[in-house]
Design goal:
Radius of gyration: 22 Å
CATH architecture of the largest domain: Alpha-Beta Barrel
Number of helices: 17
Largest sheet: 7 strands, mixed
Number of domains: 2
Helix content: 25-40%
Distance between the termini: 35 Å
Bound molecules: cobalamin, iron/sulfur cluster
Mean pLDDT: 93
CATH superfamily of the largest domain: Aldolase class I
Shape: globular
Length: about 475
Amino acid sequence: MIDNKNCSLDILFILPPIIYNSALSISGAEVVPNSFTVPTGALSAASYLEKKGKSTAVIAMDSFLVDWGIRENEETLIKWENQYIGNLYRTLDRIVRRFDPSFIGLSLQYTIQEPITLKIIEYLKTRYPEKPVILGGNHATFSAKALLQQTQADAVVLREGEKALYSLLIELEGNGATACSVPGLAIKNEKRDILFTQENGSLTPSEIPVIDWNLLYIPEPYSVPDFEFYVMASRGCPHHCTFCTSPSMWDSKVRFRNPDHIKREINELIQKGVRVIGIGDDTFLPDFFKNGSRTWLQKFEKTGTVFFCETRADVINRTSTDLLRQLHKAGLRVIYLGVEAGTEELLKSMKKNISPEQIHEACKRLKKLGIRVSSFWIFGHPATTESKDRKALDFIEDLLKKGLVDEILPHIYKPLPGTPDAKDPRVQLIENDFSMWSHTGKNILACHNIINTENGKIVYSAEQIKRIFDESYALKEKYNA
Ligand code: B12
Ligand code: SF4
C-alpha cells in the first residue's frame, strides 16, 4: 500500500518472521504460505504516532522473504536454515537502508518468534548501532527482562503500546535523560540495570486509533489479498483462562471501540478489495450492540463482504437468536469456539468455566442458523491426564458425528509467558527452544511431560501427548474437518 516512502522515517515497525517456525518444525514440507499475518497491533501504534505527526511504516517480514526454498528433510535442514537466515539479513539491510528510520520497532507477539527476533536484534545492532531498537507486543511484554538482558535492545514497551511508545520517542529525540520516567516501559539505565517504569494508563475507547491500513508496506509480488486482515471491535476479555495471556495483558477489562472507528476500518478494507475480514477480538461479545451502533455490520451486508470471529459457548448461549440471525445476515459465516477440553472438571481447572452441555447447545444453535462452527482444542494442559484427553477425543467424535462442528483445530499446550499456567510445577519442559513451540499443525512437537509433583514421576509423557494429538488429527482427517 505504501509505495514510494523511501524517505527517512521516524520509526519503522517490523513483524519478525512467523512462518519460519512452521518450516523448522514441519519436516518434508515445501514452505509456501497461504497468506501473511497483518501486524494489527504495530499498525495501531503506527497510526497513533502518525496522528501525532510522526512518519511510520509497518512491514511483515514474512512477506519480504519470497524465496522460501524447500526444507526437505533432516539432512538438508542446516543448509536450508543458513540460506534462510542469509536471505533474512540481506532483506533487513535493504529495508533499513530504504526506509532509513530513526527508530526500529520490533513487534514480538508470539513466543515462537523469540529466537529469530534475537537474531534480528543482533544483526541490526551490529550493522546500525546508532538506531535504537524498541520491542513491543505480547511475548515481549512478558519476557521483557530476559530480552533486555540477552540483547542490545534499548527498551521494551509493555502491554498497550501507543501512548508509551509516543512518550518514549519524544524523550529519546530530546536527550533521553528522562526516558526512565516514561510509564509503561522496561528500560536499561546508564548502569545497564533493567528498570520497570510505573504502569501506563490505558487509552480510552475513543483514543484507540483508527488503523490506517496504508501504513502496511506490501512488497512485490504480493498485494492486499495475500494478507489476512483483522479488525478489533474491542480490546480485552473479561474471562480468566489460566493458559491464556489475555487476562494479564489487558487486565480482564473490556473496552468496546467506537463503532464509527470500526466502520471506517472496515470500509477502507472493503475499498481495497478485501472480501473476508476477521473480527480479531479475544472474545467477540455481542454485548457490544447493547449501546453501540450496528452500522458497521451494514457495511458487510451491502458489499457482500463476509466475516468471522472467535468467542465462547456461554457467550453464544446468552445471545438472542434474533441477534445471531442478524449477524449471519450481515455476513457472519464462521464462529471459532474455544472448546479446549472434553470434561467439565478439566474446563474448570483451566478456569474456562464452561460445560460440554453448554458447548453442545451453542454448536446446535449456530448450526441451525447456518453458521459454520470451528473449534479449538488443547491437549497436554498441565491439569489434564491421558484419560481426560481421551475424553476430549470422544467428545470431538461425538460432535463430528452429530454434525455439530465443521472444523476441529487441535493444539498442543505450550506454557506461554504471562499466563498462570506457565508457573505450573506439573509441567516438565523437554524442549526449551521456542522455535519448536508451534501450537498447531500436523507435525508439531509436544515439548513437555506432565509430572506428579510429589514424586517427580512422569504421569503423562510428551510422547503420549503427541500420540493423542495425532489421534485428534486422524479424526480431523477422517471427518474432513
Ligand atoms: C487475531 C489473533 C490472531 C489471528 C491473526 C493475528 C494477527 N493479525 O496478528 C490468527 C487467528 C491468525 C492468530 C493466530 C495465532 N495466534 Co493469535 N491472537 C490474535 C489476537 C486475538 C488479537 C491480535 C491483535 O490484533 N490484537 C490487538 C492489538 C491492538 O493488540 P496487540 O497485537 O497486542 O498490540 C498492542 C501491543 O502488544 C503493542 N505492540 C504490538 N506490537 C508492537 C511493536 C512495538 C515496537 C511496540 C512499541 C508496541 C507493540 O501495541 C499494540 C497496540 O496497543 C491475540 C490476542 C490479543 N488480544 O492481542 C492472539 C495472540 C496474539 N495469539 C496467540 C497465539 C498463541 C496464536 C497462535 C500461535 C495460535 C495457534 N493457533 O497456534 C497462532 C499463530 C500465529 C500466526 N500468525 O501464525 C497468542 C500469543 C501469545 C504468545 N506468547 O505466543 C495471543 C496473545 C493470544 C493468547 N492465547 O494469549 N492470532
Ligand atoms: S481463552 Fe478466550 S475466554 Fe479465556 S481468557 Fe483467553 S481470550 Fe478470554
